[in-house]
Amino acid sequence: MWIRGQKRDCLINANDICIYEIDYDGKKEFEFRNYGFGDDYYILGNYSSKEKALKVLDKIHEALLSDLEMNLDVFQMPQDNEV
């Protein structure tokens, strides 16, 4: 599935994406990552809560399920305030 990053700076043909919990000086964020070669990865989006990140994952799941009906080629990662 093609996914365009939240910052609109990358377009990735993602086979595997994962949510990672990151702690920035006591502030937690939840980051969508797509791994490339070796330890390289692209950050597709950041969300302020696990609940928001899971909602985005649900949207990606729904897009995959309805791909044939909607002819969806690219999923745009929403901004944190849009979730």
Write a structural description.
The chain is of the alpha+beta class and 83 residues long. The chain has one domain (2-75). The protein has two helices and six strands. It has helices spanning 50-65, 67-70; strands at 2-4, 11-13, 18-24, 27-35, 41-47, 74-76. A hairpin with a 2-residue loop joins strand 3 and strand 4 (27-35). The model has no long low-confidence stretch (mean pLDDT 87).
Helical amount: 10-25%
Our count of domains comes out at 1
Strand order of the largest sheet: 2-1-6
State the order of secondary-structure elements, H for helix, E for strand.
Answer: EEEEEHHE
Task: Describe the SSE topology.
Layout: E1 2-4, E2 11-13, E3 18-24, E4 27-35, E5 41-47, H1 50-65, H2 67-70, E6 74-76
Parallel strand pairs: 1-6
Antiparallel strand pairs: 1-2, 3-4, 4-5
Give a nutshell description of this structure.
The protein has helices at residues 50-65, 67-70; strands spanning 2-4, 11-13, 18-24, 27-35, 41-47, 74-76. It is of the alpha+beta class and 83 residues long.
